[in-house]
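To: structure subgroup
Subject: Chain for Friday's discussion

All,

I'm putting the inputs and outputs inline so they're searchable in the archive.
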Amino acid sequence: MRKFLYSIMLSVSVLAVLSFSGCNALENATTSGSKLILISLTGNDLAGQVGSTIIFSDVAEANGGTINDNAVAEVTAALLDPFQEAGTFYQAIFVDQIDVEYSRSDGRNVPGVDVPFAFSQKVSVTIEISGTAEIPFVIVQHNAKSESPLSNLIYGQGGVLKLEAKITIHGKDLGEHRIQPVVGHISIYCANYADEEE
């Protein structure tokens, strides 16, 4: 009887170890021992001041031109293993690409009709473990303002178009292992806002 109980206890212990070893979904999605954590996404407010968690995009300047709208992703690098005290040189993360994709809350999400086209941009930023970095990037391209649906806000239809931007940040550790991309979201209110008089 004692052997039988010991056998059951051993089996339960083995199952518990196997369960806990696979409980971190992130570990199953990457070959790197590092991860990227998104701290914040910010851009310009209605007055043009940086640091806003809601972005306001003016689709036309006073002179009729268009400019990019920029945002900033603040990120930090960390280790997957919570028991590892310090990272090595090869566990630092090199961020190399940021993707921007748009959607609308009403479900009308056809690129070039309901929302601007998605795009990617290359960046080059190295972040040491436990270090942080602020990465500037374009969140609305100037050429998107001459295409539907943003151009509709200039020519005749007016109004405000609210977009939800999905930001995906890609990278790899310095050992050339790709990390799991990190995703964040931020709202953008697009309109032909009134320009301040000189």
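Points worth raising on Friday:
DSSP finds one helix and eight strands in the chain.
Confidence is low (pLDDT under 50) at residues 10-22.

D.
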